[in-house]
Design goal:
Layout: E1 6-11, E2 16-24, E3 30-39, H1 41-45, H2 52-74, E4 83-89, H3 93-110, E5 113-118, H4 119-125, E6 137-142, E7 147-154, E8 157-163, H5 169-179, H6 186-194, H7 219-229, H8 235-268, E9 274-279, H9 286-298, E10 301-304, H10 316-327
Parallel strand pairs: 1-4, 4-5, 6-9, 9-10
Antiparallel strand pairs: 1-2, 2-3, 6-7, 7-8
The structure holds adenosine-5'-triphosphate and magnesium ion.
């Protein structure tokens, strides 16, 4: 029997300090032996967003304990590992350095291979922790900093077909929660309070819904929520606005996903059933999950979502990406370092900024 690779993963790109030990299964999925995530929500709550200096300091204070706890829970030690993988970007440079440096040190000390991982590749591969998925597949990555439709042709081979030209979906949830004073981080709270509201109460804009392919624009939606929030007079109206906002995002994703599915088929000339993989923190949203399942059924795609523990930031997805790279012999270049910006598709046009015409 072939040896099963075991990796330590480390994640410190933003406000979660995380470590995990993951072992591959024979069937192509992963056995997550430990997955420790320490969230810094409490430290950033009063600022309504992540403060880089505070985040970096919290990573420094916690990282050794979190790694030790991941190893202990998994009942493995450095000698049992085949490699160490740490997030190298995109993210906050001061935060990335903490996890990346300690990962490099552990790997050097244990004479193990070290992998600098793209956080977005971690998200992209997270659904395959629990599901056997074959390439190519269509990926919708909806997180706090990114919103992209990608054709995943293979590991390390991504073609972006759509992205946001302004706010990310998670960012729109967070900003709307802030406007409505529903707490930080906002996504899960909007989902919770939307259940108490009526989704058709407010008519909100759906920017570029009928043009620009499967690209997204959400800044105008958020601005309209801000405008309308100034005229609400009761808690019920606040819940109605939260419900209307979530429903509008849901409708935008429904329409844009249909376009992305058509584009996937026409670009790859494939008519058989393929996987539609949804990843990132917003993939935890039940309403969005249900809608995307319906769209998939209608368009002959098999929808795959990660379990909620693998939707938001975690280190299991980083260890898993490391294992995949090891198997394909995609080793680090010499002196690999952290990168604040690191797109999965290097050739994709950068679609942000004033004066953009689509
Ligand atoms: N139930 C939910 N509904 C909608 N959004 C959610 C839900 N749960 C979490 N989110 C959103 O997911 C985002 C966090 O996801 P994630 O941790 O993947 O993002 P990130 O790491 O901050 O950004 P990136 O991965 O792009 O660097 C936040 O914006 C949060 O509001
Ligand atoms: Mg993330």
């Amino acid at each position: 029997m072939k040896k099963k690779l075991t990796f330590l993963g480390i994640e410190t790109s933003c406000d979660e300090t995380a470590a995990a030990v993951v072992q591959e299964n024979q069937d192509g999925t992963a056995n997550v032996l430990s997955n420790i995530v320490s969230s810094q929500i409490k430290q950033h709550e009063r600022f309504g967003g992540v403060v880089p200096e505070i985040a970096a300091r919290a990573h420094v204070e916690n990282i050794d304990f979190i790694i030790q706890s991941a190893l202990e829970t998994s009942k493995k030690n450095i000698n049992n590992l085949d490699g160490v993988a740490a997030t190298a970007g995109p993210g906050l440079v001061v935060c990335l350095h903490v996890g990346h440096n300690i990962g490099k040190s552990i790997a050097a000390f244990g004479k193990k291979k070290f992998f600098s991982i793209n956080h977005l590749e971690g998200h992209a591969l997270s659904p395959s922790i629990e599901n056997k998925i074959t390439f190519p597949y269509l990926l919708l990555l909806i997180s706090g900093g990114h919103s992209q439709y990608l054709i995943v042709k293979d590991l390390n081979n991504y073609k972006q077909i759509g992205t946001t030209i302004d706010d990310a979906v998670g960012e729109a949830f967070d900003k709307t929660a802030k406007i409505l004073d529903l707490g930080y981080p906002g996504g899960a709270n909007i989902e919770k309070f939307a259940k108490l509201g009526k989704k058709n109460s407010f008519d909100l804009p759906r920017p570029i819904i009928n043009r620009a392919g499967c690209n997204l624009s959400l800044a105008g939606l958020k601005t309209d929520v801000l405008r309308k929030s100034k005229h609400i007079n009761s808690i019920q109206e606040k819940y109605n606005l939260a419900a209307s906002f979530q429903d509008t995002i849901n409708e935008i994703l429904k329409k844009k996903t249909e376009i992305a599915m058509k584009e996937f088929r026409s670009k790859l000339k494939i008519s058989s059933t393929k996987a539609f993989v949804v990843a990132g923190g917003v993939a935890a949203n039940e309403t969005i999950r249900e809608t995307l399942k319906e769209v998939s059924k209608k368009n002959n795609f098999k929808p795959i979502f990660p379990s909620k523990e693998f939707c938001g930031d975690n280190a299991a997805m980083i260890a898993w990406a490391g294992i995949q790279r090891y198997k394909k012999k995609l080793f680090n270049k010499k002196n690999e370092t952290v990168k604040p910006r690191w797109p999965l598709d290097n050739k994709a046009p950068f679609l942000k900024g004033p004066g953009l015409k689509l």
